[in-house]
Model the fold of this input.
Amino acid sequence: MSDMLSIGSSGVNAYQRALATVSNNIANVNTEGYTRQDVSLASNQPRQMGGSYLGTGARFDAVQRQYDAFVESNLRNSNSDLQSQKPLLSYVNRLIDVMGDESIGLTTAMNLFFESARDLASDPASIVSRSTFLRDADGLAARFRQLAGQFDLLDNETRQSVETDVGQINSLTQQLGLLNKQMVKHSSASNQPSELLDQRDRLLRELSGLIAVKTRFEDNGAVLVSVGDTLDQGILVQKTTSRAISVSQSSIDSNKLEFIIDAYGQPETMPGISSGKIGGVMNFRDQVLNPASNSLNDLAEVMAREINAVHREGVDAEGLLGGDLFSFSADKPLQASGMQMMVQDANRVAAAGQFRVIDNPLNSGTAQARVSYETPGFSGPTSLQGDLALAQMPQIGSVTVSTTSSQPFASLGVATAGINNLSLTLHNPTANQSFQVLTRDGRHILGQALTADEQALLIKSGNGMEAGTTYSSANLNASGASTYLEMDIFMGAKAEVGWIQQFNTTTGDLLAPQKTPAVLTGNTFVSSSAGIAAGALTLNGKPLPALAGPLTLSSVVNWLNTETATTGITASESAGRLVLSRPSNNTTDDIRLGMGSNGTPADLSRLGFDTRIAIQGVAKDDLLIFVTDRSGAASNATVSGQFTGTEGSMKKTLRASPLQVTFISDTQYKIVDTTTDTVVAERSLQANVNSTTPALTYRGLQLEFSTAPRAGDVFTIDGNKDGIGNNETMLRLVALEDEAIMPGGLTMTEAYIERVNQVGSVARQAAIAEQALSVVYQQAQEARDGISGVSLDEEASALVRFQQAYQANAKVMQTAMALFDAILQVR
Done:
């Protein structure tokens, strides 16, 4: 009986524990992270009875977690991938809403700005149109700032989200470290409490939702957690130790975030985070937000630069050159968030071009002219040659050039309009060497009249001449008001009034400098047998008579003193040199020993002087300078030079002096500088290469005619001083809307729309990826639930089964007791 009782008792005890386990499963059916538990029963050790073994009942062996490491790992990985798409999709959709919104996006503001520019171009004199243009320009700058502000909000929000999530990661890794510490009590995971292992797996799943992790489990169930490329890198949890992650702004790029593990212990840089919630936020920042923000800054920079470039070239309603329309605040240079409008006065809007053309109302033809300016490009030199281009005071430049029999000239380059106080000296010239100075339109200013053969060599585009240039010597070697454009330009030997610095003899203080009379001193005089022809030389514009050879220093001094009585200039000799000087009371006039029409530098050289080109003040046109040699033999020439600087440009020079274009015939015209009444060009009308209408160009000015002009027609070009005579600037600004000035050959509007489309493309891809990864995660969750999840149906079935087994074992015990009582009652 005792055997039956013990067997029944063992069964009751075993199934009591089985019922408790099933009850626990049912109670935790909705507990997050709970893993279903099964009871393991085993039979007791059998007892030998005679030649056989009889069973002794059942016993409770263990409670087993229904756990699959591979399925759990797959669930964590799919969770990381899915969680990375959710914030990416959410933030990208918000960014699209911002960029595409009419009240915040740029497209509407840019359209309004260019529409206002078109309206102003049609009526540059309208103060209403100017005010509207300023309003929309300010609205465009404000829209850049607003959009940049929205980007900053997203930047701050995502930065705070990452910092918060990093804090959660650190909390989870600390908890995992504590769990590992508790697991040290047992050497095998099977001996660990199931709830402890469930808590470990739940923490790992939460961690995987924030960042993708790699794991390795010890025999006792403790976990090693890594976020590196391998398990040996980026370790966050190892045994009982956890390492914290810190996040900071990158020192290289302020828009990027850096992650450091154990920043205050043994710092380790984390690789880029691409999965988990943090990975999704970082992908949004790095792949969407930062590129969008950079493209917005680039667009603001390009737009401000291009618009400012056009606006600076324009003329406002007061006749002044325009300034920058947009700028950036000092603390936010070249950033959309710092973009602001500079012009506040409507009259300061530079709507007009720097030039305008006025048709003479008495023109017999019907041609209407339109003027524009484009920086010209010429063949040949663009500046003085070699070191001469670097000879700004106090530097002195020098070059040596060569001529040959086939090319009896050498270019010294071009003295560009605006060069100031230029001086070029030809040292020790041969009998046939000379300077030649011409304009780009063949106006011969200094030198000797060119023969037809010499014109054919010099007057061509390859030497820097304008197309269609004709030769003229009307202003050759002129002086006074007859010089080209009334420039103070001279070739010969020249001495200016000097200055002597004064000091206070008592205090040593600097005083105003004092003028001294001009003194012209030559090189060491060398006697020669040749004489000087009549008119070969001039002294301050007065032709000098002939002087027969041989020439000695004393004969030259006597000759000059005989002829200079009316000029107030005295000739003398000093240390073997010829000296020309002014009286001490004349501190206003200079001394100019020049060449007549038949003079050469060799004539000056016989008197001990080098030949010098001197431009007093600013050059008013581009001057092409050559050294020629008419000997027919090869020769070298050394030229030194110096200038004080460059003031202005050709464009500024053209604005200063109105030009008049007069058609001598239907095809021949001349251009006259009306300020000095100087003919600066005479040409034939050329067909416009870009259209069927005729056109002409002069130093970058482009004059286009609606129809062919007629003989006698006159057109005046001036600097548009009232700022309303030509809407060229505003038309150029309008044209910017359609110019492909952005990378990829896009217009500004297209570049912005392209960026919006790129963000939209990321949103579509993220939405598709989220749907796909949701299915993968659901499948992983179902796989995990199929193994570790609690099914009420299965538990109810097990509950009934275990209950019946329990009752049956209890019945065995009852039967054993009844049999025992029956034995006791036997008499």
Remarks:
- Residues 2-65+792-824 form one domain.
- The first strand starts at residue 37 and ends at 43.
